[in-house]
Amino acid sequence: MDVDTVSKGEKRLCFQRPGFVCEAPNRRAKRENQPGGPTVKVTDVVPEFADAFDFDEFNQMQKEAAPAIIDNTENIVTAAPTASGKTALAELAICRTLANDGTALFIAPLRALTNEKEAEWERFESLGYSVYVVTGERELNPRRAERADILVMTPEKTDSATRKHQSARYAFVTDIDCCVIDEVHLLDSAARGGVLEVTVSRLRRLCDPRIIALSATMPNIDDVAAWLDAPDETTFQFDEEYRPVDLYANVQTYTHGENSFADKYRRLYRTLDIVKPHLSEDGQGLVFVSSRQDAVQAAKKAAEEIDISTQGQERNELSFHEQLTNLSNETLASVAPDGIGFHHAGLAKDDRDRVESWFKSGRIQLLFSTSTLAWGVNLPARCVVIRDTKYHDPLEGEVDISPLDILQMLGRAGRPGYDDIGYGWVICDQSDEHRYQELLKEGKAIESQLEEDLDSHLNAEIAMGTIRDLEDVFSWLQTTFFYQRAQSRPATYGFETLKEQLRTTLDSLVERGFVEMGDDLSVTTTKLGQLASKYYLRLHTAEQFYELSQQPTITSDMILETVANADEFNSVSARQNETDAIAAVLDRVSTDLEGGSRKVLAILHAGINNKLPSDLRSDAWIIKQNGLRLLSALREFVAEFSGPRTANLACRVEARVEHGVSRDAVALTAVDGIGATRAETLANGGLKTPVDIIEAGAGELVRAGLSEGVADQIIKNAREFPRVTVSWDTMPDMITRGENQMSKVTIKNCGGGAPVAVRVTVNDVEMLTHDGYLKNSMTVPVGVFGAETAKLNYIAEISFPTLPLTPIQAQKQVTVDWWLSAVQNQAGRNWRTLHLTLTSTQRWCHRHYWPLVLD
Q1: What percent of the chain is helix, strand and coil (3-state, nearest 5)?
Q2: Which of 60, 162, 168, 561 is the most exposed place for a label (fewest CB within 10 A)?
Q3: Alpha helices in 289-335 (DSSP H)
Q4: SS3 string of 834-851?
Q5: What angle do CA 481, 484, 488 make, to 5 degrees?
Q6: By C-alpha distance, which of 552, 541, 554 is closest to 600?
Q7: pLDDT tens digit string along 843-855?
Q8: 220-224, 549-553, 821-825: lowest mean pLDDT where?
Q9: Closest by Cα among 852, 843, 835 to 762
């Protein structure tokens, strides 16, 4: 590896080798205008990293772009056709970063692709570099993240990490030297584009990494390059001439009917008519469908309708039939011998790997897949058909596949080295034909989606402290792709009035309580703004959570209804065949919710009762996961604005939705080793809390069906939770009317520590509240007074705001002696009411005994 010294003293890989052009090519590169040049081997260029590449020679596109990646530090924007080798450009940028002891971040468009990159880049691991995937489904290891050489994240996780960059857990994100954005045209996604846009802008403000932006479809590459400050010499648009195989793309139509199920089969038969000629010539077909279930069902139907079993001699090999027996998916094992398969993220990894291998080798000729395959593994086919241009999103309803995703899928057509031309087809309703014909002819410019959620993103920046005054607000806007695109299309984006639009948005945040503005035009966040940003809430949802927390009484049903009515579920739709199931679940629930919100409420209630009707299962998982996220947010809202007792209630509701258990069993779900079924079994046997588990002992757990080893471990785990006793200490059994006496209540803990809230009432009137961390003991002063009542009934309640444990209550009764005349004469007849006496006693407690004694 050649190393020279540049002005900053950094090392760099030098690509001035035979076969590479010495100057960057024209950004509007065309293959016919560029000399092919001699072969350039990876080992000649990056000998220290050669084993990190899965090929031996660079292709023409890679040769032309590589010098710009290696021999300078400018940001790079590259558009190149699908299957032209863009991933190698990302890997070259990573190699340069690693050579300079830097850290690279790869932003993948899908979570499934982060796992694929982790597997692919074991090649870097074998060279001694650390690759670490950070996603929401994995527990973050901050030490591994900090020490990683290559980080792989989704846009959403990168957004989360940069929002929390000031915390020790996520400080690693401020030390990125190079950021590769794979499929940057995700900016155009209505659901996710805004997140990618603000995240990249924020990352540049935090640590200003070098940006490498890659895409197969970028008609307005100038806008993306200007946004990322990539100069002309490092901006490349490789046109279709650089496709390894020419592409013919067209549209086939069908007549849309009233039955969506029948429509799928109409489109499937159109699909089979298209692919049959190619299959008969030993070609392959790749068909994109809208869901995992559709991929499976379409493959089964295709196996019934067409016969390609006599083709593909590789399928007659003994090794292939032996591999079939290792498949974990029975349906896949039944159709694969016929040369048909399906692929989606829900398949076991070994099954996916086999499908990909069989398709590459020709053993599978017809493959049905979800759209994730268009973003991930390079599996080209002679014929690509997009059977479904719409898909059902549980949270958004029926959604069109984005135009840029359509082009991405079609780009898979044509196998290099096998086909002279690839064929791509879009099957759509007749009413959509013109729209897709125009897309294939003109392409689709990347638009900013920031405006849709401008208030949420602006609130997040203010909550993080990256925006401190009005001037910062305008400066932030200028770092966005939205601002760049507005300059290019001023009429569409209203460029002349952008400042006014932004000021209106800011004023709205102030008026709604998310932001405070000073007389000097400084802006600061509020607790409401912080929580909305922390949990990625739509602002109206945050307002609803705040309103709930202000209610004098909050019930579990109110919590569930507020979550079900959140804006995040606005696009959920209730299908006609789900109506009866929804009604049955909510038969005894009083609610005014309708439509999709009513369906969400039914799924949450069904989750609590662990009785989910089959008609609601298709959307239940994703709705439940989002519901749990919102419940977690709501718990913190009520903790902040209502109090710890309500937080405990929200915590118990959240645990019941997550585990599907009864009120009696919910506390046990906090103990490691006790799942939902085991919790119900133990609760039915009278063991309802961690303390019950400890006191029962291992023998009782064994009799309940647990092994001795499991029983011992569960008891050990249960000891990590508070084990509380309440002592009324010096409180008397009787007090004379008119007399006041200070006593105390002591909460002792012989278990694990936890935050607690203590509430003392007398005759149902709240006397005092206090919250703190209970480690060993906590002492609370209590006033005892002789009022105009025969009995004083004291109740001390200890609740756990962060644990799903049922609050603990202890009572003490004090008798008031009415018959001592001396006290009567002293007190006279003008006794105060009980409420006023309590209030006076509260003030006396605060004056003489606060702060409370904590141990």
Answers
A1: 50, 20, 35
A2: 168
A3: 292-305, 318-324, 330-335
A4: HHHHHHHHHHHHHHHHCC
A5: 130
A6: 541
A7: 444 444 333 333 3
A8: 821-825
A9: 835
Q: Of how many residues is the chain composed?
A: 855
CA Rg, the chain, in Å? 33
Helices (H), 443-576: 454-464, 470-478, 481-488, 490-493, 498-511, 527-534, 539-549, 556-564
Question: Is 791 within 8 Å of 814 (Cβ atoms)?
Answer: yes
Distance between CA 796 and CA 645 in Å, rounded? 13
Query: Is this prediction's pTM over 0.85?
Result: no
pLDDT at 276: 94
Q: Are strands 366-369 and 383-386 parallel, antiparallel or unpaired?
A: unpaired
Q: Which residue has the tokens 């079994």?
A: 681
Q: At what angle do helices 527-534 and 454-464 cross, to 10 degrees?
A: 110
Smallest Cα–Cα separation from 634: which of 529, 734, 551, 563? 563
- Cα dihedral sign, 599-604-605-610: positive
Token output for 103? 């850290």
- Contact yes or no for 576/595 (Cβ under 8 A): no
The tokens for 407 are 């082009």
Is the separation of the CB atoms in 164 and 88 below 8 Å?
A: no
CA distance 234 to 212: 10
Q: Which of 32-46, 91-105, 759-773 has the lowest mean pLDDT?
A: 32-46
CB distance 247 to 413 below 8 Å: yes
Lowest mean pLDDT, pick from 358-362, 473-477, 641-645: 358-362
Q: How confident is residue 315, by pLDDT bands cut at 50, 70 and 90?
A: low
Name which residue leads in pLDDT, 396 or 559.
Answer: 559
pLDDT in tens, 774-791: 999 999 999 898 878 889
Q: Are strands 210-215 and 178-181 parallel, antiparallel or unpaired?
A: parallel
Give pLDDT, residue 349.
84
